[in-house]
Amino acid sequence: MRTADQYLESLRDERTVYYRGERVPDVTRHPVIGVAARHAAIDYELADDSRYRDLAVVSDRDGEYSRYYQIPKTSDDLLKRSALIELATATGGTLVVLIKEIGSDALVALMRVASALDAKYGSSYARRVDEFYQHCRGNDLAVAVAQTDVKGDRSLGPAAQSDPDLYVRIVERRSDGIVVRGAKAHTSVSTNANELIVLPTRAMGEADREYAVSFAVPIATPGLILLASAYDSTGPQSSVVERPISARHKMMETTTVFEDVFVPWERVFLAGEYEFAGPLALAFVEHHRFTAVSYKLPLVDALVGSAMLMADLNGIARAGHVREKLVQLVSYAETLRGLTRYAALRSAPRELGIFVPDPLYVNIAKYHFAHGYHEAVRNVQDIAGGSLVTGPGAEDLAVPETAARYERFYAGRTGVSGKDRLKALSFVRDLVASEFGTYQEVLAVHAEGSLEAEKLMLFRSYDARPALEFVRRLAGLA
Amino acid sequence: MRTADQYLESLRDERTVYYRGERVPDVTRHPVIGVAARHAAIDYELADDSRYRDLAVVSDRDGEYSRYYQIPKTSDDLLKRSALIELATATGGTLVVLIKEIGSDALVALMRVASALDAKYGSSYARRVDEFYQHCRGNDLAVAVAQTDVKGDRSLGPAAQSDPDLYVRIVERRSDGIVVRGAKAHTSVSTNANELIVLPTRAMGEADREYAVSFAVPIATPGLILLASAYDSTGPQSSVVERPISARHKMMETTTVFEDVFVPWERVFLAGEYEFAGPLALAFVEHHRFTAVSYKLPLVDALVGSAMLMADLNGIARAGHVREKLVQLVSYAETLRGLTRYAALRSAPRELGIFVPDPLYVNIAKYHFAHGYHEAVRNVQDIAGGSLVTGPGAEDLAVPETAARYERFYAGRTGVSGKDRLKALSFVRDLVASEFGTYQEVLAVHAEGSLEAEKLMLFRSYDARPALEFVRRLAGLA
Amino acid sequence: MRTADQYLESLRDERTVYYRGERVPDVTRHPVIGVAARHAAIDYELADDSRYRDLAVVSDRDGEYSRYYQIPKTSDDLLKRSALIELATATGGTLVVLIKEIGSDALVALMRVASALDAKYGSSYARRVDEFYQHCRGNDLAVAVAQTDVKGDRSLGPAAQSDPDLYVRIVERRSDGIVVRGAKAHTSVSTNANELIVLPTRAMGEADREYAVSFAVPIATPGLILLASAYDSTGPQSSVVERPISARHKMMETTTVFEDVFVPWERVFLAGEYEFAGPLALAFVEHHRFTAVSYKLPLVDALVGSAMLMADLNGIARAGHVREKLVQLVSYAETLRGLTRYAALRSAPRELGIFVPDPLYVNIAKYHFAHGYHEAVRNVQDIAGGSLVTGPGAEDLAVPETAARYERFYAGRTGVSGKDRLKALSFVRDLVASEFGTYQEVLAVHAEGSLEAEKLMLFRSYDARPALEFVRRLAGLA
Amino acid sequence: MRTADQYLESLRDERTVYYRGERVPDVTRHPVIGVAARHAAIDYELADDSRYRDLAVVSDRDGEYSRYYQIPKTSDDLLKRSALIELATATGGTLVVLIKEIGSDALVALMRVASALDAKYGSSYARRVDEFYQHCRGNDLAVAVAQTDVKGDRSLGPAAQSDPDLYVRIVERRSDGIVVRGAKAHTSVSTNANELIVLPTRAMGEADREYAVSFAVPIATPGLILLASAYDSTGPQSSVVERPISARHKMMETTTVFEDVFVPWERVFLAGEYEFAGPLALAFVEHHRFTAVSYKLPLVDALVGSAMLMADLNGIARAGHVREKLVQLVSYAETLRGLTRYAALRSAPRELGIFVPDPLYVNIAKYHFAHGYHEAVRNVQDIAGGSLVTGPGAEDLAVPETAARYERFYAGRTGVSGKDRLKALSFVRDLVASEFGTYQEVLAVHAEGSLEAEKLMLFRSYDARPALEFVRRLAGLA
């Protein structure tokens, strides 16, 4: 297993990354992407920390490896994976680390679908996937996943777009591999991963055959161009005094462009079997949305804790309306926790005995989180007070002339110094009233599937027969 | 164990029950209360039914007895109890049976508190409670619980009321027992129970000493007067064609008046130890609110099933807004189920090793149910259509002249006869657009604790330390 | 203008009305429909009451006539009409009277569309409508409107149904008139009206030509069969002590069957001009939905008043959560009032100079009312307490034995007798926890257009250009 | 009247402003505050623009002056004032200008209360206020208002704080004036105003006598120290390509410190008459909250327009769930508009004939806006898509290498270029997914009164008698 330093070292290669119009020579030393890389290193640090080793590392007949790469074969495996994700995200200051979380979700999804593909076509996808899995696990790699195509006209399918490259597609099939072209949006952690797994984004029809493609490539592959998002450039370049979270914790997304990228057959996991595009997309989501609800737990805990802390510091903890809002926040957070855990406890084996968390409860949990996030933020902002957006910057607190005045006039309830209240406000501001804060809002609504996607999957996962039979019986219908 | 007939026979005694101003000579033959008694008999019928015997009956070294009377010593005991409650309520057409459910909650609460009382006072409450428990279990009795006092001015405590009898109190202590006076409101199933357990309704102070009283008496005790509610007299006297649920299923409440009722010491479980009034009230609620979320499950399933059935019969199942409402209903119902089950899985032992469901999740579940019930009803009414309140009565469907026209013009989507759609509408009407329907609305808000009581207990059950420490650490506060 | 007695007398004719399978010989003497007829008479009583005459009666060069029949030509006309509807509904104990309200909405809609029809076809519809209008106004008639067809499969249009009579249609065109067949659902006040106006329910295509029909007939027309709803038979037959509203106030709906009904040409207002079916349906809704938001005002006021009264009687008016719920109720009610009045103030002239309330605000108001009604009911139930469904019947309060106990134990806060609190509870029960209460819930969702219909019309009435241009300009888009 | 340049010139004086620890020599040339000053100049530009002159300028016997300074004496005055505020805010890219809006609200409040003060004390406050009003109006000044004290322990009043300076107070009364000390929070536009009006923040008791103080001073007054907020430093220093709103529009808040500031008696408007502290605070709010709902209109319009624009560009305008969200947004925005206008139409004269908007509807409108803002933002974020937070920066779109790729892969529905969609996304990002976006969220909850303040005032403004009497009459209570 690798250390954090080995991980960071591994990122110094020929990868093509652009940030604000400039090619980035070394992502680990970049003022913004470097923060993201060091944040991602948490997944390596935890495995190296004796306090967390039991949780973070699995030891079995294959040797020691990261628990993220453990194929879940029991409910308890899923609970432990969830606990590790929760720990890593809490260590990451409420921001998911993701560097192993998402890749392992894609790998189990590929395993499940490859076995079905091979059964139908007599292909050898399962072996390829397994070899790639051994490669990732054995070398303790950081893996990104590109799924969402850039899509163009959302009302049209891949083949119906005016520009054929708005979904990633196979443009050439060669004896040694395929050549792919197109672009994916919102690829997380790709700037600081070792490998990139590409998955289809939706169900496809026969016309979309060349769009039904899945594969893996190293990030530093010729023709693979990562256009890093400029979003929230400020946080990572700020003082930790002013931005306690976002100055240290960052996740990068890229628009990921494939300019005739060659992929050898050994790394191709789907190539035209369009009827499996939907199942593969779905299998990934079945695992990844459980990962998602797990890593949202520290975020919602931070909302609850922030509201309770500020209510106390401001001297309003006993006000009826504050109590009401705290109850809403606790209920919001713990409903997410309860449903997440229950989904793991209700997991069931699928292809190859891989345990899949109950999709009904995972999707209810995810929808609950996503739908209620903004209201929870409003409650935290409400309790914290308007000072969230009218307070000092780091320099104000460093210069005696201004610091003394701020520290005096930001005093809270009796016994609470302005200094402490300013620290608390800085944290809460970064959490819910900053560019990082709105990033979390948009992620709530869009990441790991939209609100509508969650509703759809929730509905499909619900077995309506018992309720219908119950009602028909009571109504006297045959 | 008793049969349903034995149970019904046992109700024919000297009990004092009034219904609409008249003394009821035999509750089992009364046109309304008789329906309630036969509904309650379900708890006996299930135990007698070979399909359900394993769930409904426990067999251990003490012999065979109703599972309701099993003291929960594991999470699995709670899950099975919950499953039995769910089964009984489903058999009861969405209406809880309660005749053993509530009494057993009170008994375990009394056991827990009696052990603490004896530890403090060297009293023998534990023995008394146990003997009464053996009596109920051994004779397979139906037991009601009177907790909520009539209360008068809600902003004042028991001793501060202008009329001293607005909370039940001890008016005399004799060598052989106590004499109690006052009245309790909303006592469910008392008209058709064998025994009545009385519990205090709230925490009390020294001034309320004589109001800190708990005991049990047979229903047919002199001075115990049951004023039966006149609410929904119509349902039980209607045709099952018109009211498929409420014509067969009924729960009675009484205003329960104690006119100098004598209680022998053997049946007294609290008598002045006012500091235990709150803990006893709370212990009951800890168990009973879990019972409550368990018996709400068939009700919410019926809402989901009704909406799905009517969407299908009306030919609107594919409309976007209908799909949206079905998703809301599924999410509402299954969040309740998930949190209820998770609360049982998270149960922990308390006094005497009795397992208590996790009060945080129980109260979140109960609040979720109660807060969302009316919106769920709105969604069902919305999908079912205005015909809920403009349709025929039972006679209209019996007379050919009107029946033929109704059956023709109530046809639904292709393939759905008017006859079937009328049956479905009758059921859904009874469920959500009838006096029975509003009864369920009011129960949702008030029964087993109000919305505010649930929020309060939810908040108190929440361990805020982890969230606060997490936030303080991230904010850089000591 | 007619007196209430003249109105009631006019209902004693050959009309064919069935109630619970039996033909009703005289609707005014029927134990249920008679209540509805006397309730409807309010519209006549008000005109006869010197306190309200100025509001209820218009006097112009055509003489004196009911304000309901005044064609709105200014915003003030609409405000006065709204005020009269509000007054009549408040007099009706929160239940709309409707006997002139709905017919006059249909008449102005017919006037508007007839002028367009004549312009296109050179027909004489406008004259026919005007003559019928003069007939209604001059004779001060009570007029019902049948619009919603029974519809069968809601996903199919009129002509596509398996049974051709699921929408009302022309089956024969004769020299002297047309013959119509089919059935309409949910026709309000038809049992106790003089005339029935029939309108199409939706936009239609060429295939639906014979379904594009509008006309008026006297209620006592051969072949016109009214199947009266059996819903809430109990209220009108109850004691006013137990049901202060529904024992006195009732609205009847019918399934209205046309068995080859002949309509002379003079009474035909649309006969095959299918492209006007949609506009006519819409024009009616433009007026009638404003009528609807006007008559919902006393209902929402009663919710606010009930909650405030019960909060006071129970001694909880100062509790934080009660205050919060009262605020929600006030905000709910007054948002409806504000939007309703603003819609009238923003009205604008359309065909023939007829003023139409601003459909955007009318539909926002209606949707606001309909979407929030159940939550408002929940708040009232919450504050009123569980006694809503566990209290006495009328007989309990008449017999001294039970009355004395109830009156003692239902005492409220200091100074509030049980007698008064019982009266208040009876009223609130009838309003929000009775069959009448659920009737109002279902009406909220379905009457005068469903939630979805309101959203659709709201969206269509919104002029998106200013907001789009504003945003495009700020975004730098041409 | 002054030009924008004259206004900017007037800001170059001896004012003491700190920004990020540094004293600012010239606010108009500061990279951040300068943006705020130029934004504020809009109020001067509009008056100078012939298109808007009729709205922005009043001409009466006193000559020409800004409409902001017109004392409202009719409903129409209020409607015009509201329209001007709406226009200025729209011109300001959804951000209120405030530089005359807030000061004029304070001035009319002072006029109203001064007349009452003089009536009670025979003082000459009214004359002082009027002279200061003439000064502001005659010189066309920019005026800030400091109301909210820094407050310390929110559960304690001014005099009960451990530090006596946590509310602004009189520390010395001299023959020529008073000396004040303390600090106010959240003072908007003070960095770029000419005058500062100080108002008390709450009702006060006798112990708080020296905290009951109101006065006005020029910004460049010795001892007056403005600590400018560091919030959103990024926006004003960014490219307009990346931040179309916040690069050009900015409002500054300060923590406003009074270090023994001398105020001559002519500028003192309250000095110890503690029973008028509450009425003055309230009077200001009565006017300012109407100003607030007026300037929120362009913001909510921008939310609606953004959602509609993005739905169109993304090709999802016809999706059912998108339609539903657009309806919610339209309803949200237009309910605010309807209630705001209705509040003006329902205004009534108070002291000195000054028209006050109906506080019931103003507060319902404000609460509606504030409570629903986050949900509205969620809907916009939902429709706009995840690209809000994963897209390019300004440099990416300037460099051909990256620009070409972004422009290709950000194409929208057929006919929509990536270039246009990128522009739209930049705007929507700035509006709802940026530090400026969260600024608006926090303002929604806190500015011009918190959610709780609005609920309290709404409740107090409601005349409950009609609803209570209606209900009591129906219930048969005397």
Structural topology:
The structure is a homotetramer of 478-residue chains.
Chain A lengths: L3 H7 L5 E4 L2 E2 L9 H8 L1 H6 L5 H4 E4 L2 E4 L8 H17 L9 H21 L3 H14 L4 E4 L22 E5 L3 E12 L6 E4 L14 E6 L5 E5 L24 E12 L3 E4 L5 H38 L5 H26 L2 E2 L5 E2 L2 H26 L9 H5 L1 H10 L8 H15 L2 H12 L4 H11 L3 H11 L3
Parallel strand pairs in A: 1-10, 5-8
Antiparallel strand pairs in A: 1-2, 3-4, 6-7, 7-11, 8-9, 9-12, 10-11, 13-14
Helix pairs in contact in A: 5-8, 6-7, 6-8, 8-9, 8-10, 8-13, 9-10, 10-13, 10-14, 10-15, 13-14
Structural class of chain A: alpha+beta
Biggest sheet strand line-up of chain A = 2-1-10-11-7-6
Order of helices and strands of chain A: HEEHHHEEHHHEEEEEEEEHHEEHHHHHHH
Q: For the largest interface in this structure, which chains are involved and how many residues does each contribute?
A: B-C, 85 and 87 residues
On the 0-100 scale, what is the average pLDDT of chain A? 97
Portion in helices of chain A = 40-55%
Largest sheet of chain A: 6 strands, mixed
